Amino acid sequence: MRLLYFAWVKEKIGIGVEDVDIPASVTTVAELMAWLKTRGPEFEHAFARSEVIRAAIDQSHVRHDAHLAGAREIAFFPPVTGG
Amino acid sequence: MIRVQQEDFDISAEIAALKAGRADIGAVVAFLGTVRDQGGAIDELTLEHYPGMTERELERIEAEAQARWLLQASLIVHRIGTLRPSDNIVLVLTASEHRQAAFAAAEFLMDYLKTRAPFWKRESGPDGSRWVEANATDDAASARWQISKDAVE
């Protein structure tokens, strides 16, 4: 699965994109964030306030209870600030 | 039409292109967003985005406006990269037969863009740099369109 990170999420993790094998037990966005937090201090730091982080599956906004089944690309980012 | 680009845009040229060859447009509304220096606190504003999703989200927002109002044409241009105070950031044009649709659609497009399009601003100035925090009033401005749509349905 391809994971993308933007803005301060990317800054805290130190990378913008990676391809990751996700355990089969991880089925939702919230579970994925909880699992990512176990991958090292930089991930723990980036996802410490996971409730404020927004997610997109295959370039569409999703809620934290969204299922990952069939997803090719999952992105994590802060609330958007364009315009 | 939507565009995401580093280079500046010319509002007059964009309006002329929108109207070119058309005699059915009676109203054009333009919204131009520009960089504020916030009393000298900002030297630069850098816009990051999510290539691919940004374009898709802007197209979705534009399609939603076209579904809600009778628009003859519309345009969203958003800049990325590093900008300086007074630089242009975003242009929204809406064209309709009568002004009401163009005014409402332009406001809707900006409210939705602010809360849905994946752009992130980083400000830098004499006191360092920081990511801009999302604004709760933008969420409220976007949410009121949902309420008014539900009330109509």
Structure, explained:
- The complex is a heterodimer of chains A (83) and B (153).
- Chain A is an alpha+beta fold.
- Chain A has helices at 7-13, 29-36, 41-46; strands at residues 2-5, 17-19, 54-57, 60-62, 73-77.
- Chain A is built from 3 helices and 5 strands, in the order βαβααβββ.
- The longest helix of chain A is centred in the middle third of the chain and has 8 residues, at 29-36.
- Chain A starts with a strand and ends in a 6-residue tail after the last strand.
- The model of chain A has no long low-confidence stretch (mean pLDDT 97).
- In chain B, 39% of the residues lie in helices and 31% in strands.
- In chain B, the strands form 2 sheets. Chain B has a 4-stranded mixed beta sheet, with helices on both faces. Chain B has a 4-stranded antiparallel beta sheet with strand order 5-3-7-8, with no helix packed on it.
- In chain B, α2 (53-68) packs antiparallel against α3 (99-116) and α3 (99-116) packs across α4.
- Chain B is globular.
- Chain B has 4 helices and 8 strands.
- Chain B has helices at residues 11-19, 53-68, 99-116, 136-152; strands at 2-5, 27-34, 44-49, 73-79, 81-83, 88-96, 119-125, 128-131.
- Chain B is α+β, with helices and mostly antiparallel strands and 153 residues long.
- Chain B has a single domain, classed as Molybdopterin biosynthesis MoaE subunit (Aldehyde Oxidoreductase, domain 3, Alpha-Beta Complex), CATH 3.90.1170.40.
- The A-B interface holds A 4, 6-8, 56, 59-61, 75, 77-83 and B 33, 47-50, 52-53, 56-57, 78, 89-90, 110, 113-122, 131-135, 138.
